[in-house]
Amino acid sequence: MIARPQSNLLAATLAEQGTTILSVWSDRLKKSGALASGRIREAELQTQCRTVLDLLTPAVKDGVDAAQPAFAPLRDFLADLSRSRAVQGFTPSETATFVFSLKQPLFEAVSGTKGADPTDVMRTTWDVTQLVDALGLQTIETFQKSREETIIRQQREIAELSTPVVKLWDGVLALPLIGTLDSQRTQVVMENLLESIVSESAEIAIIDITGVPTVDTLTAQHLLKTVSAARLMGADCIISGIRPQIAQTMVHLGVELNVVSKATLADAFALALKRVGRTVVAVKARELPAS
């Protein structure tokens, strides 16, 4: 985008008609449903619009290239606004509309300038289009990046919550897995299990895969990594919850876990107790005295 200092109609229009542009822009946003979601109040929306125009007016005095240093305060404000809206639950269209809806008020203000040269009006209209498009694209890119970062953070938190390590007995831990086991989740599983092995001085760790829908070669590799890490910490592992369908799939794929496995968590727990020198016996229920 090329600066046009010789005839800066846009800068003059913003300086002279800023109040009118703000009013028209705010009205267009309200009519488009900017307040319908209830996420933002009219006073806050008005303040955001006014701030954009206050930062835009001095920035365009030397040109309309949004990448220039003069536009840095405006770019920063729009970036902060995008991140804030991403957290508040605004949609991409609502965020983009905030910027792109500024075009029409600027077009009307520029074309309505008395005594302006038609060529200058046409050129300024094109400059407005490029400028607002550039600012709008930057805003939506920042919004999208913020949403992705939020989703990644939430996925990490969910992964941590979905991989609890349960103490079944002194020296015996259980790690029930539910859902797909990918590389990122394996890391979380490993960290939680190893920390629990150290804190509980555990000798046996039962990894229950009853809730894992399928075990392929990649899933088996992730399990083996977890088992190997636990062994390095001095704990033996038992894998439980291998259903007939999973067993057949593993045999078909030639997957070998090279670790003791049991069909159910109860069987694995019984084996773990035996290894730590414990046993479970049935005790006759005490008869309650007659009332």
Automatic annotation (TrEMBL):
SUPFAM superfamilies: SpoIIaa-like (SSF52091)
UniProt cross-references to Gene3D superfamilies, sorted A to Z: STAS domain
Keyword list, A-Z: Phosphoprotein
This protein's record includes keyword Transferase: no
Recorded superkingdom: Bacteria
Kinase listed as a keyword: no
UniProt-recorded name of the protein: Anti-anti-sigma factor
The organism of origin for this protein: Rhodoplanes roseus
